[in-house]
Design brief:
With 831 residues, this protein is α/β, with parallel strands linked by helices. The chain has 38 helices and 19 strands. The strands form 5 sheets. The chain has a 7-stranded mixed sheet, with helices on both faces. A hairpin with a 2-residue loop joins strand 1 and strand 2. It is flat, with a radius of gyration of 33 Å. The two termini are 53 Å apart.
Length: 831
């Protein structure tokens, strides 16, 4: 941006140029403000606000001046100045700040910014912390060159970025400068896993190694798009999918019933298709086409919408209809996530896909274009260019070629021509699939919906748009969704047990074609497996017949089938599971029952000796979340319990159980928790899937869990409910998570080292009773430490309000949890 702006002569740069080339782009592309959050040139009660930025309940005012204005900031290394000092009192900076401050006070905005695009000045607006206007500070950036320096850019982003304004973090640099708060000193922190020094992978058994290639194919391969044939074979049909197949077949048959297949090889006439397309004399009698048919395929994320569409055109569509269809597939997952860029992407990709299917080399030749635009060719030849056609035909063709170039550049007109060409010359029905729109947020899907309507309106076609069902139902009352009639098909998410059963059946069938396999057991015996499929069948029964295993894995994956398959593959191949017992069950024709303890250790630890949050995305350590010295390690758990308390609450949203992020930030503020800390807890819970955003596509692929991002409403997910039960009932969860808790107290670390030495000594003696006793001591010490830090950092008011009573109940539960030690494991039914 800096380079592009400096490339323009200063004398031609107006205030409008400054806004368009710098300020607008900095706000949107650098600081993350979305279009809906930015109000420009707002007139209210005689005031003209250049920019008002809205982030939940926090707002900012930006007063813009043209780039040729100099705020008169001294050329020194100073970054901070007093509001009452000579820099802030000099013109034109003084009048600009005064004007912006007046707007901020009147409209309740917490952040004030004055900028020329090149120079940026920030200060706090409305304040409630007791700091007077004269004693407050201003932050200055003298040029774009300064902002482009890494350390200064970090400060610029901390003050002006949308996530930091929304969470209130933008105030911290000012409060630090003014001495209101001090930088937290985290000191040295270690985990029990570091003290033990045993963070290493466990070796897999021979059985696991032998099954690894099979499991990889069954789960990992089938959960991706690299094996479409296998995905089709493993697609779980439901009553709704069968009905959707039937309705789609009827729609396709109706749209193609008046299409006669093109005879491409008439006897004695050569390549008839080539003649029709390339010959100059092609005279297509174009009929009048109505608009196309749009079909919305609704379903949850992971319900198999893409596989359904692929299977329909590959296997389910009758042959006589299929040969009349020209199918193109547009993958929206590769598109720019900015909804504003989507219409251009879909137009260009649709044109590109059609040309690749129709023409050799992916683009039409001159003669082919002449056939597509033959009515224009004839009109020119008979009309204004008739003399040129008769006297100099070569020049006529050159002139027509120039007009063809302009016609092709008109994407809408060119698409219309191609559609008519496909229908009347090629004798085909164009079938367009706008796939994977549900990877993005509701706004993106709404734009995809409108663009699908526009595309289908160009001519007769069948257009399929898979969407998230929640997006459609929420937006149904909006004019665009409500006013346009579409065919709606619904695909529910199949049960995980049925998905696993279908994949096991597929793998067993593939294994049945193989040869005899030899496996060495952990006890050293080599066992010949005449039919490896039978061994896999035994494994299948183990994991799909146990209700706790199948349901908890589905809950942990929050219903995402692909994620559940990935977790299943990790669990099955984990060394925590004794697969020698699987062999024994196979040899004795018995049943192999996987114990809950072994299963949970496989889920929590995978291939490793200890749990580490850095290696786990789906399992979240609620005894240490978030991971900062100045934040209670149990804040994540308290946030989760607050959402659990509100799960049946009716909110302003249409969906029950959703709570506003602002409401959670404000609630924990009453407990003395900074908004920024709660924001980090929300980010960690969203990242691990324990909380579900209202708009499932709002997080995006680059979401890192550092904060709640642009999420406005959240609710407890199935994984969150499962984690709550693990915290309260699972001994294995407690043992695993204690390894990963960060300890900031040196005395605690010393005591843990002593216990770790005693544990290692007991291990060398193979005294497992002593090992268990020491582990209980270590776990109790870590729990006590975590609860003590929580009580130091969170203050619950002495109030009879229901919300405060709930927080006090959490305190008593945690105290009981500390005293429980290993205790008794409760096998409570899953919710």
């Amino acid at each position: 941006m800096r380079s592009e702006f400096y490339a323009r002569p200063p004398e031609v740069q107006t205030e409008a140029d400054t806004r368009a080339l710098i300020i607008d782009r900095v706000l949107a592309d650098v600081l993350g403000w979305r279009p809906a959050q930015i109000e420009r040139e707002t007139f209210e009660n005689g005031d003209r606000l250049d920019y008002r930025l809205s982030a939940s309940t926090e707002h900012a005012i930006v007063e813009a001046k043209r780039s040729s204005i100099d705020f008169g900031i001294p050329a020194t290394d100073a970054r901070w100045y007093k509001r009452s000092g000579p820099v802030a009192r000099s013109e034109p900076l003084k009048s600009t700040i005064d004007q912006a401050e007046t707007y901020a006070a009147r409209w309740g905005c917490g952040l004030v910014c004055a900028t020329t695009g090149l120079q940026w000045v920030f200060l706090l607006g409305s304040r409630t912390d007791g700091i007077s206007k004269e004693a407050s500070s201003i932050l200055v950036f003298r040029s774009l060159d300064e902002i482009c320096e890494a350390t200064l850019f970090k400060l610029f982003f901390e003050v002006g970025a949308e996530p930091n304004v929304r969470s209130g973090l933008f105030r911290r640099p000012f409060l630090r400068e003014e001495g209101v708060i001090a930088e937290p000193t985290e000191g040295t922190s270690k985990r029990l896993i570091d003290v033990r020094g045993q963070d290493r992978q466990r070796k897999r058994s021979e059985v696991a190694k032998a099954l690894a290639p099979v499991l990889k194919e069954v789960f990992e391969g089938l959960s991706s798009s690299h094996n479409p044939e296998a995905l089709r074979a493993c697609f779980v049909e439901t009553h709704e999918s069968i009905e959707a197949d039937s309705r789609l077949q009827r729609i396709a048959a109706e749209l193609t019933e008046d299409i006669e297949p093109l005879d491409t090889r008439a006897a004695g006439q050569g390549d008839r298709l080539g003649e029709l397309v390339a010959a100059e004399a092609t005279d297509v009698s174009l009929g009048e086409d109505g608009p196309g048919t749009t079909v919305l395929l609704l379903g949850q994320h992971g319900s198999g919408k893409s596989t359904f569409v692929d299977s329909f055109f590959a296997q389910k569509l009758p042959g006589e209809v299929k040969k009349k269809c020209l199918v193109i597939h547009i993958d929206l997952s590769k598109a720019d996530p900015d909804p504003k860029a989507l219409p251009g992407y879909l137009k260009s990709q649709t044109l590109l896909a059609i040309q690749q299917r129709l023409f050799k080399g992916g683009s039409p030749s001159y003669d082919e274009l002449k056939g597509i635009f033959f009515d224009e060719y004839q009109a020119l030849a008979r009309g204004p260019l008739k003399p040129l056609k008769e006297s100099r035909p070569e020049e006529f063709n050159i002139e027509f070629g120039r007009r063809l170039e302009k016609s092709v550049q008109d994407q809408e007109g060119y698409l219309r021509r191609l559609l008519r060409h496909i229908r009347w010359s090629r004798k085909k029905l164009l079938c367009v699939i706008f796939d994977n729109a549900d990877h993005f947020n509701d706004e993106f899907q709404s734009v995809a919906f409108l663009q699908a309507q526009w595309t289908a309106g160009l001519g007769r076609m069948l257009l399929l748009l898979p969407m998230r069902d929640t997006t459609y139902w929420r937006a149904r009352q909006q004019s665009a969704f409500h006013a346009i009639r579409n065919t709606i098909l619904y695909l529910p998410r199949p049960a995980l047990a049925k998905v696993l059963e279908r994949r096991f059946e597929f793998a067993i069938g593939e294994l049945s074609k193989g040869d005899k396999t030899s496996i060495r057991s952990l006890r050293g015996f080599r066992i010949g497996i005449k039919n490896p499929a039978e061994l896999l069948h035994t494994l299948h029964k183990t994991f799909t017949k146990d209700l706790y295993i199948s349901r908890s894995m589905a809950m942990l994956a929050t219903g995402d089938i692909r994620e559940a398959l990935r977790l299943f593959e990790i669990c099955v191949s984990s060394p925590q599971i004794d697969l020698d017992k699987l062999l024994a069950a196979y040899l004795s024709d018995g049943n192999y029952r996987l114990g809950r303890t072994a299963y949970e250790r496989a889920v929590f630890l995978g291939d490793w000796q200890q749990f580490s949050q850095d290696r786990s995305r789906r399992v979240c350590n609620l005894f240490c979340c978030p991971r900062e010295a100045a934040i209670s390690p149990l804040l994540g758990f308290r946030t989760l319990m607050r959402c659990y308390e509100l799960r049946n609450q009716e909110t302003t949203k249409a969906d029950k159980g959703f709570e506003s992020v602002e409401g959670l930030l404000s609630f924990f503020s009453t407990l003395g928790v900074p908004r920024s800390s709660t924001d980090k807890a929300l980010g960690a819970l969203l990242y691990s899937g324990l909380l579900e955003p209202y708009d499932l596509g709002s997080l995006g692929p680059d979401f890192d869990g550092s904060g709640s991002s642009t999420v406005k409403f959240v609710k407890l997910s199935s994984s969150g409910r499962l984690h709550r039960q693990w915290v309260e009932t699972s001994v294995q969860y407690g043992l695993a998570m204690c390894d990963d808790v960060q300890i900031f107290d040196e005395d605690e670390l010393t005591a843990l080292r002593e216990k770790s030495d005693r544990r290692n000594l007991a291990l060398r003696r193979r005294d497992f009773t002593a090992v268990q006793a020491v582990e209980t001591e270590m776990m109790s010490q870590v729990k006590e430490y975590v609860l003590r830090r929580d009580l130091e950092l969170i203050s619950i008011p002495d109030s009879d309000a229901p919300a405060m009573k709930t927080q006090k109940t959490i305190d008593s539960r945690l105290a009981s949890w500390v005293q429980s030690g290993r205790g008794k494991q409760f096998d409570e039914p899953l919710e």
